[in-house]
Write a structure and sequence with these properties.
alpha+beta, three-stranded antiparallel sheet
Length: 266
């Protein structure tokens, strides 16, 4: 059986330029020419289908060419490569499973945020880790700390833009925050310097909407829970924190939605 370039391109979804590249790399033979038209043989089609299989597993074209060459890989080497791609797929599966969980949580909180009234309730929080530069900035000037921040940013959306205020601090600081269980998956841990742990437990909670004033006064996001705590004589127990859910930029005004918490004792 013989196949024209058009047949192969349609059947396998491979562009003619890709076919020429596969020829050049030795994955398939140079097609035979009859009456001025180029034709591929059954063996070429089989190799192209096999190449698609390996491409689907993430093997590079050059590695496929090496595998299919006359001095190519042994069966054992091919199997080792397949196992390697299986391990990579498992890592991706774990990553995407966590990503789906992070997005689901963001959707749930954001849906609640759209109905934000600033009202305070009480709910249970999980352990959290938060990161801030030694200068109190979310993105510090210290180069070593910048590298740490970059690692955290690579873990978004598990990591959120946040504002934190420790129990004895005079003011809130810009920071990044992540649930402690997710932090462990990324290899983040409290170091007592830039990264701090906030124990979970019962906390005052409010979803707050604020404008640009947060940049001059980050603590503005905690006004509802602080007012409620004062009125009902709750005492701040752990670091107060709030994570940004989303920003509404409609009608020329930026409205920042924060999910805020204050661990307490009475």
């Amino acid at each position: 059986m013989r196949y024209s370039i058009g047949d192969v391109s349609r059947m396998l979804g491979i562009t003619t330029s890709a076919l020429h590249f596969y020829e050049k790399e030795g994955i398939i033979d140079t097609p035979k020419v009859e009456s001025g038209r180029r034709y591929y043989q059954e063996a070429d089609i089989t190799r192209l289908i096999s190449a698609k299989k390996y491409r689907a597993m993430g093997v590079s074209v050059r590695d496929i060419a090496q595998q299919f060459s006359h001095d190519g890989m042994t069966g054992g080497q091919v199997l080792a490569r397949i196992r390697e791609k299986r391990d990579e797929a498992m890592q991706k599966m774990t990553f995407y499973r966590g990503l789906v969980q992070d997005i689901d949580q963001l959707i749930q909180l954001s849906e609640e945020g759209l109905k934000a009234t600033g009202n305070v309730d009480i709910r249970h929080t999980e352990d959290m880790l938060w990161l801030s530069g030694s200068d109190g900035n979310r993105v510090p000037l210290n180069k070593e700390e910048q590298e740490l921040v970059r690692c955290w940013l690579d873990a978004m959306p598990a990591v959120s833009v946040s504002i934190c205020r420790e129990a004895e601090a005079d003011r809130a600081v810009s920071s990044l925050i992540v649930p402690a269980d997710r932090a462990a998956e990324f290899g983040f841990e409290a170091d007592g310097k830039n990264v701090h742990r906030i124990p979970g437990g019962m906390a005052l909670h409010a979803i707050v909407v604020c404008g640009e004033e947060q940049y001059d006064d980050p603590g503005v996001i905690f006004k509802p829970v602080l007012a409620f705590a004062k009125e009902h004589r709750f005492v701040q127990k752990e670091t107060m924190w709030g994570r940004m859910l989303f920003v509404d930029c409609s009608n020329g005004v930026r409205r920042h939605y924060y999910d805020t918490y204050m661990g307490f004792e009475v």
